Amino acid sequence: METYLKISQVGKQFGQFTALNNISLDINKGEFICFLGPSGCGKTTLLRAIAGLDLASSGTIEQAGRDITYLPPEKRDFGIVFQSYALFPNLTVYENLSLGLRNQGKSVAETDSIVSQWLDTIALPTAGNKYPSQLSGGQQQRVALARALSLSPGLLLLDEPLSALDAKVRSHLREEIRRLQRKLGITTIMVTHDQEEALAMADRIVVMNHGCIEQVGTPQEIYQNPSSRFVAEFVGQMNFLPASIVSEHQMRIGESLLPLPAAQFQRGEQVELGLRPEDLHFLPAGEKSDSSVLVRIDDLEFQGTFMRADCQLQGAHQLPTIKVDVPIRETRNLGLSRGHYLQLHIADKHTHIYR
Ligand code: ATP
């Protein structure tokens, strides 16, 4: 695969504060990348360094083989969409879209044709004469997207473009952005703190924390194999249970002994097990396995396609509640109800262990 954007050992200091710490990342041509992380982790700072809106303090950034680290934004080749739609309020939609095209030296006729094509593409064919304030938030964001893309940039940067919109509009626009991005094959980086959005949209997710990259991978890799407790906690739901290593083959959770699914731990070591609610399951009443523990069901919450059970490990009241998701069709046979005791099976292959 062809590397389009190469970020090498990029650092960013704001006075004494390190906002980016030695970031290296290669982004392929045509990829949709999400920078994901909690507030303050540095994702916007990294995006701004790529755009030239802030300059990196160290390291290099190359785009299509050209060193752009210290180029001003206007000399770079990108389009950007911000969270706040950032359209010119005193210009019509047509004028907002045509400004950049005219600056690029396009003729009036050419500009008209490109603008009307883009208005069709974003399903606002008659919005040209309207002012931004006459459009909904979702419509304004579509115009902002069309404005960025109409200039045919090599790179599309999206800074939380969906977070000001309500849930329904957001999910619709999510699909629209992804469809357009695929059709144009444009390399895209989107900043988000919304893990669901990143899982749904990205080809690869870059999980950031405290100015560092924690993990880079496809949504499946990040979800199924979170490389650190931070990633495990940030992406998806995860139960964390303290456990101690008893021997090469066994660990203790509360008062139960279970087989140890990995080899690299030492006797006496304290670890944390990471267990996704959907990877756990109850055994039918009266059954037990080598890898099951007795739990009491404290609460049940109907979630549509599954039931979420809050359980408490027996004999160990200080342990956190374990959340278990049971597909609805399985709930009947299990006779799930509050106060009941069941064996909870913890499968080796779904157990993540963190030091
Ligand atoms: P958010 O989702 O809240 O925007 P983020 O991950 O995008 O978070 P950044 O905006 O990249 O975070 O900021 C990273 C850190 O750098 C934060 O602690 C922020 O306070 C700090 N920071 C950002 N810009 C500046 C600045 N111009 N001067 C000083 N500190 C800054």
TrEMBL record:
Q: Give UniProt keywords alphabetically.
A: ATP-binding, Cell inner membrane, Cell membrane, Membrane, Nucleotide-binding, Translocase, Transport
> InterPro entries attached here?
AAA+_ATPase, ABC_SmlMolc_Importer, ABC_transporter-like_ATP-bd, ABC_transporter-like_CS, AminoethylPonate_ABC_PhnT2, Mo/tungstate-bd_C_term_dom, OB_MalK-like, P-loop_NTPase
SUPFAM superfamilies from the entry? Answer: MOP-like, P-loop containing nucleoside triphosphate hydrolases
Choose any GO biological process term that the UniProt entry carries and state it.
quaternary ammonium group transport
Q: Short name of one Pfam family for this protein?
A: OB_MalK
In terms of PROSITE patterns, this protein maps to: ABC_TRANSPORTER_1 (PS00211), ABC_TRANSPORTER_2 (PS50893)
Query: Which GO terms of the molecular function aspect are on file?
Result: ATP binding; ATP hydrolysis activity
Using the record's annotation, list all stretches that form the ABC transporter domain: 5-235
Keyword Magnesium assigned to the entry: answer is no
Entry's PANTHER family?
PUTRESCINE TRANSPORT ATP-BINDING PROTEIN POTG, SPERMIDINE/PUTRESCINE IMPORT ATP-BINDING PROTEIN POTA
Designated name of the protein: Phosphonate ABC transporter ATP-binding protein
